[in-house]
Design goal:
Elements lengths: L4 E8 L2 E15 L3 E13 L8 H16 L3 E4 L13 E2 L2 E8 L14 E5 L1 H16 L27 E7 L5 E9 L10 E9 L2 H11 L7 E7 L16 E7 L2 E4 L2 H7 L6 E7 L10 E7 L4 E5 L6 E3 L1 H8 L5 H6 L3 E3 L4 H9 L12
Parallel strand pairs: 3-4, 10-11, 14-17
Antiparallel strand pairs: 1-2, 2-3, 4-13, 5-13, 6-11, 6-12, 7-8, 8-9, 9-10, 14-15, 15-16, 17-18
Bound molecules: coenzyme A.
Coenzyme A binds next to strand 3 and helix 1.
């Protein structure tokens, strides 16, 4: 039976010395459309057998199998940033950890919210999360389809100094659930660490739910600071603050690393807002050599084609940069500035940006 888990193992002299696995997942790409993706996870080679090419061999096998299953994309969360670029992966979504002092969290006057908030127990949150996530992920570029048991572990039990997880839901004026958040109030005997509210999960279907939930969480009695460890870079809450600078980004990191496995299948699987054509060359892709060559991408809101071309390309890019551009969150100008995209005519970089870029930025709220 195909359970969507595709393991790999590396043996030397009959001994198991390494393993990895690819999960058949689905990701939302610009359109929004849902595309099959092979998610690489649980990778390790025993210390005595590292740097002999075992991971490369497993990765190649996983790429070939994913292509055989018709998955045009691969992805992973990278433990170390220096390993996976050589296999064609590159960051395609980013995330931020931010902090906000409650005393600075004064909000602008805006339209009053019309729904209702409720603090609920874990049993209600376990029901609420899949409902909300299902609605979000259909339109949130970069979001992944979750395992059915993803939220089973939510509980009301206290966990050491982290304090118990608390759950907040929002309902619209008609009583329909449209937002959910998980947060903790950290406990500490030292006053400087006490009073921190950590928002570990937050999803809102409507702007009303978004504002109402942050209004409560940023002004929670007996707290001094609000921390959100993994949020999109373009957080609207910043623009709800009278002092936008009060939200301090304390860490910015790559999130999902993407790898285009089948270039024409991937580029025609997403949609584009503009009508234009772009020609580009991929010079090198030893693990997926079928991607190498010059391509013509012709896009319009109704139709997309990606075919080989003999024309002189507008630009040359590596497969990593194209993978970073794919979900629409990466700047073509930044990649050109880094020398990873080489334009061959004036305006080629701007045209590339216009073709790929999306707003808001892609984001995935969890890894695998
Ligand atoms: C990361 C790991 C799986 C790599 O396995 P491996 O079999 O040693 O990798 P390979 O020999 O196939 O290496 C392929 C390439 O990656 C490079 N590489 C491997 N691990 C690296 C690391 N930690 N940092 C930088 N480069 C690394 C190799 O030098 C090699 O480079 P090359 O293509 O230029 O020759 C292994 O080192 C490991 O298990 N590390 C600890 C656990 C871990 O980090 N797992 C990843 C979880 S996401």
């Amino acid at each position: 039976m195909d359970d969507g888990i595709h393991p790999q193992a590396a043996f030397v002299d009959g001994k198991l010395v390494g393993g990895s696995a690819m999960l058949s997942l689905a990701i939302t790409v610009p359109g929004p459309r849902v595309v099959a993706l092979g998610g690489v996870t649980a990778t390790g080679v025993v210390a005595t057998h590292r740097r002999r090419g075992l991971l490369r061999a497993m990765m190649q096998a996983m790429f070939d199998e994913a292509l055989g299953r018709g998955e045009p994309l691969a992805a992973l969360s990278a433990s170390e940033g220096g390993i996976y670029g050589r296999f064609g992966f590159s960051p395609a979504t980013m995330r931020a950890r931010w902090e906000l002092d409650r005393s600075d969290a004064r909000l602008i006057d805006c339209a009053p919210t019309v729904g209702s908030l409720e603090l609920v127990d874990a049993a209600v949150a376990r029901q609420a999360w899949p409902q909300i996530h299902q609605q979000i992920r259909r339109r949130q570029i970069g979001e992944l389809a979750p395992d059915p048991d993803r939220w089973d572990g939510l509980s009301d039990d206290a966990a050491g100094t982290d304090g118990p997880m608390r759950y907040l839901v929002h309902r619209d004026a008609a009583g329909n659930l449209d937002g959910v958040a998980n947060f903790r109030l950290l406990w500490s005997p030292s006053p400087e660490h006490a009073g921190t509210l950590v928002v570990e999960g937050f999803q809102a279907v409507t702007a009303d739910a978004y504002r109402a939930m942050w209004m409560l969480l940023t002004d929670f009695d007996l707290t001094r600071k609000i921390v959100a460890p993994s949020r999109p870079m373009d957080e609207p809450l910043r623009w709800m603050l009278r002092n936008p600078r009060a939200m301090r980004i304390t860490r910015q990191s790559d999130n999902l690393w993407l790898r285009i496995l089948d270039l024409p299948a991937a580029l025609t699987a997403r949609a584009y807002d503009t009508t234009t054509e772009l020609t580009f060359a991929i010079e090198d892709d030893s693990m997926c050599p079928h991607n190498v060559g010059a391509w013509r991408l012709a896009v319009s809101p109704d139709k997309v084609t990606c075919t080989r071309t003999d024309k002189r390309p507008d630009l040359t890019t590596d497969i990593q940069s194209l993978s970073s551009l794919y979900l629409g969150g990466m700047s073509a100008a930044v990649l050109a500035g880094a020398g990873r995209i080489r334009p061959h005519r004036p305006g080629a970089v701007n045209d590339t940006a216009r073709v790929f870029r999306v707003d808001p930025e892609p984001f995935n709220s969890f890894g695998f």
